[in-house]
Amino acid sequence: MRTLRLAVSALAVCVALSACGGQDGAGDTPTPTPTGAQPVTSPPSPDPSTPGVTPTPGDPVDPTGPALPPPPRPSNAPTKPPTGGTTLTGTVTSGVEPNCLLLDNYLLVGGPRDLLKPGAKVTVTGRVQRDLLTTCQQGTPFLVETARRG
Fold it and tell me: Contact, 103 vs 140, CB < 8 A?
């Protein structure tokens, strides 16, 4: 009788464990992973290089599709932006990083360093270059073309 109880208990444990491990997710809500994220259940998108799938010309995955021509430039458009567009006057201050100089919240890039020193009153001419990356971490980059004592 004792062997029968042990066999029935072992069978019950096996059935319970196989029921937990046998979930295939068909028709059920996927169970969360240990990180709490839901597993991906959608099939992968077809590979464009799969035989039998022919991309149409102009399709983004078709490298042989027609290339778009560059947009036409107006004949009166300048080839480079005009120089000397802005003039700033004031006192040069030091930035938070070494060799960084500011004038009215503009970061002075280039120009004669013998004139552009902290405390100097100057007038500079140049242009703003907002997309210029610097290590100074402050001020809007201003490309100095000319500088004079002011």
Answer: no
At residue 86, φ and ψ (nearest 5 deg) are -130, 140
Cβ within 8 Å of residue 147, ≥6 positions away: 111, 112, 115, 116, 122, 123, 124, 125
Which residue in the block uniquely carries the two structure tokens 């006057």? 89
Query: Cβ(141)–Cβ(124) under 8 Å?
Result: no
Query: Over the stretch 87-123, which tens digit does the pLDDT of each residue have?
Result: 999 999 999 999 999 999 999 999 999 999 999 999 9
Which pTM was predicted?
0.45
C-alpha–C-alpha distance, residues 15 and 47, integer Å: 41
